[in-house]
From TrEMBL:
Binding sites annotated in the UniProt record for NADP(+): 11-14, 88, 153-157, 186
Sequence similarity: Belongs to the short-chain dehydrogenases/reductases (SDR) family.
Quaternary structure and interacting proteins, as annotated: Homotetramer.
Biological or metabolic pathway of the protein: Lipid metabolism; fatty acid biosynthesis
Cited function: Catalyzes the NADPH-dependent reduction of beta-ketoacyl-ACP substrates to beta-hydroxyacyl-ACP products, the first reductive step in the elongation cycle of fatty acid biosynthesis.
CDD domains listed in its UniProt record: BKR_SDR_c (cd05333)
EC number: 1.1.1.100
Reaction(s) this enzyme catalyzes, per UniProt: a (3R)-hydroxyacyl-[ACP] + NADP(+) = a 3-oxoacyl-[ACP] + NADPH + H(+)
Keyword Lipid biosynthesis belongs to the record: yes
Protein's name according to its UniProt entry: 3-oxoacyl-[acyl-carrier-protein] reductase
Amino acid sequence: MSDKRLAVVTGAARGIGRAIVMELLNQGHDVVGLDINTEQLAELEKASGEAGYQVKTAAVDITDTAKLTETLTQIDKDGGGIGILVNNAGITRDKLMMQMDEDDYDILMSVNLRAAFMATKAVLRSMIRNKFGRIINISSVAGVMGQAGSANYAASKSGLIGMSKSIAREVGKKGVTANCIAPGFIQTEMTEVLADAVKKAAMQAIPMKKLGKPEDIAKTVAFLASDDAGYITGQVLCVDGGMAM
């Protein structure tokens, strides 16, 4: 079986997701990028074309379970089977625990954890049938070590870790792997809006004394998606400059 496969990336339009799409395209995979932002998806299509690639995109609200399942089922059918699923979409709603309301918790869990669960469920049967699958969940160092002011975010990212390990145990003998990548502080639109004091504190906690780049995560995804990573499952790779060790 070829090591060039059909990949789906959620939260694909910008930041880490966009870098993942471009790297998977560079590796020769067929890629479908899902995102809620149609304007940014158009920019992704333009950028991939300028780089000599062709990405397919679909505008989907991943919290709409029926639409997400329908979209993935159709992509799977049209493409002969999704081989790689990257659950990358994520949001933040940072507040101290005592100030956080139910909506801050519920919407974040719906995007960061529930959608990943539903997307995985939608493609898993096909992966088992094809005897190949790479499920790659983008967690966070916050899910590994906790983060003050982000109890909801940390809970969602820890949930991805537990879910990945459970899936790995369920389908390992079927040729399907499930792993997490836990990025540290990566230079994206999400981290740009953080206060300078937060960025300074983060830098002090990183042994390598520098922020990561989206490409650092993308290349790790490409490795876990490859045949070379076929004996790696149920693991959490912290790509964080040593922050969570």
